[in-house]
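Hi C.,

You asked whether I'd gotten around to modeling the 339-residue construct. I have! Everything is below, sequence then structure, no commentary in between.
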Amino acid sequence: MPGFAAGAYRPSPGRGTSPGFRFTLYAILAVLLMFIDQRRGWLTDVRYVLNGAAYPLQLAVSSPSEAWRWLQATFATRAALEAENAQLVSEQRALEMRSQRFEALARENGELRGLRDALPAVADHWMVAEVVEVELDSPRRRVLIDRGARNGVFKNQVVMDAHGLLGQTMRVGPWSAEVILITDPEHAVPVEIERTGVRTIAVGTGESQALALPYLPANADVKPGDLLLTSGLGGVFPQGYPVARITEVRHDTVQPSAQIRARPLGELDRMHEVMLVWFKNDHPAAPTPTATAASVNKDLPSGDPAYQPQPVPPPPSKPAKSTALAAKPTPPAQAGTGP
């Protein structure tokens, strides 16, 4: 009977080690691998290879939905296509007229700032990518696109659509990339309010169409309908691109900060194609890296010296009074006098 008591388990020669021992061994191995990856970061290459290997499977899983979408687009009626084409032509003309006005305003602004020519566009070039997989069920808001390192995509690259900012690339594989959206709880965007110029940070809430601004004080000048633009800080997003519009502002006398929510302008819930954008590093509106103010001002162009503030020289410092008595100077000897 003592042989059947608790704790008297003895593995037979053909059954191997006990489950508790194997669990402990695997747990120690997992902790060791996480520690080495945190210190060395060698699992990044492993993730890169696994990302490339898993991409065909992800593409095969999303093929039925893509095939159904293709059939719907193929069997669209001719009248609907003609109406859509006419609407697109009208919108294109309106955008061309608006872009001409924007160019005139930019040229005038450049002359007022003392620049010789108008500033060029901050965007250098862009590339269209298709959304392969969407992860929106959990609080995480991320998508997979069909462009990767082979196409020149890099980590933390800006992703947009025709309406506004969508997010940035988080992990890049050889033929695909994972994009974290601005509504993800782990994502934050440095923004500024267009009406007042106040700078703050917009944080994702985990909802498909909501951002939060938790760092504005209760007396901040913000109203529903205010437009949020990228501030250019943080080293990722350039300055002046639309992000969201304020939808709700609540002031609580108990809490020191206001409860503000905004709705992203990008179509995060029905996107099929996105744009990967490359920016000019030498443009004044390019993303400003996180650095000291001296290094940032050193990299920025100075413009016309006549419009720059002149440094004010410091006041002359007064000599300190000595407590010892100064020796009385002896008058110099007059020339031509003898003993």
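If it helps when you're writing up: The first strand starts at residue 123 and ends at 135.

Thanks,
B.
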